[in-house]
Amino acid sequence: MYAVFHFLVGSLKDLSAVVRLDQQPVEPESATRYLTITHTRGKATLKIPLHAVICVEANDNYVYIHYLDEQGRPVRQLERLSMRKAEELLFAGTDLFVRVHKSYLVNKMFVEEVTGRAQAYRIRLKHTGAEIPVSRKWNKPDLLP
Fold this sequence. Notes:
three-stranded antiparallel beta sheet, five-stranded antiparallel beta sheet, alpha+beta, globular, 23% helix
């Protein structure tokens, strides 16, 4: 009987520890999230806030990441990363980004203007002035923030 009682009390202690862990404050929605690209040895080669990423452009097995640095200047950096992996990193837990073309992921907050007709939309981005082609499957309202 003592062993059963000891087991139950031990289980309750473990349960109270779990409850205390669950009651810790949850990270707020507005917390800054980062795009972090690490080297194969685990060293971070690029760490930038998601809200600073303008777009990602595919280039074979590499991508150009367009983002704003700490001073607000646009930067273009080449990274060895597949477009699929970039998509996984950027889409994790956020709806800021949309893949508008097989070669482009765009942050909706940087869309300045959508031009063209339904068969050939183009997006102009803030800070870069770049015009990006849009796949035919997208409608103009879907591209605006």
